[in-house]
Specification:
The chain has 7 helices and 7 strands, in the order E-E-E-H-H-E-H-E-H-H-H-E-E-H. By secondary structure, the protein is α/β, with parallel strands linked by helices. It has a 5-stranded mixed β-sheet.
């Protein structure tokens, strides 16, 4: 079983290769990193959540937070998605193991995921029918039972907040991310 990081844990600095080919430093010397672990490319539940992050991305950046999103898909599977933040492919789930991010049947069986799963599936189906997205793969790299996780990492590598999801739609909302950034001394002052 992998270890779970808690506030106060320290993340060793490294550059992660993004799907776009540019490296992203974690931690970032000048701002907070919101490192979030999602499931797989095309996941209707993940897409529903990430849509809220995309819509409020400018607010997140203004709060001094850089978004870095990790999927257990290949770079080729993720390349077709146009997201305004760093996207990292981890098909071998090495980062997932390092950060203690696990999979469980409760990812899709917990009652808290049923409504987001329905809404996300309808939205994804509608986008596929309109040829704006392709359908999720039938065979998913890394499986369909992944749980999400969120980490807020300070420039010195200290984890200032962490959340391990209990089901597939159990992650920080944008408001929670902004509140956590505001509670941190690194948040910009206007």
């Amino acid at each position: 079983m992998s270890r779970k990081l808690q506030p106060g844990s320290v993340v060793v600095g490294r550059d992660l290769a993004t799907v776009g080919g540019e490296p992203v430093g974690v931690p970032d010397a000048g701002r907070l990193i919101h490192l979030q672990f999602r499931r797989f490319a095309g996941c209707p539940i993940c897409n529903l959540h990430l849509r809220t992050v995309v819509l409020r991305h400018a607010e997140i950046e203004a709060a001094g937070v850089r978004e870095v999103v990790v999927f257990h898909s290949t770079a080729a599977e993720l390349a077709e998605y146009d997201l305004p933040f760093a996207v990292v492919a981890d098909p071998d789930k090495k980062l997932y193991a390092e950060f203690g991010v696990e999979a469980s049947r409760r990812a899709v069986l917990a009652p808290g995921v049923w409504w987001p799963l329905l809404v996300g599936s309808v939205r994804t189906t509608w986008r596929v029918l309109r040829r704006k997205d392709r359908p999720p793969a039938l065979k998913v790299n890394g499986g369909r039972l992944g749980l999400p996780a969120d980490f807020l990492i300070a420039p010195d590598g200290e984890v200032v907040a962490a959340k391990y999801g209990e089901h597939a739609y159990d992650q920080w909302s944008v408001d929670e991310i902004l509140d956590l950034a505001a509670d941190n001394d690194l948040a910009p002052r206007l």
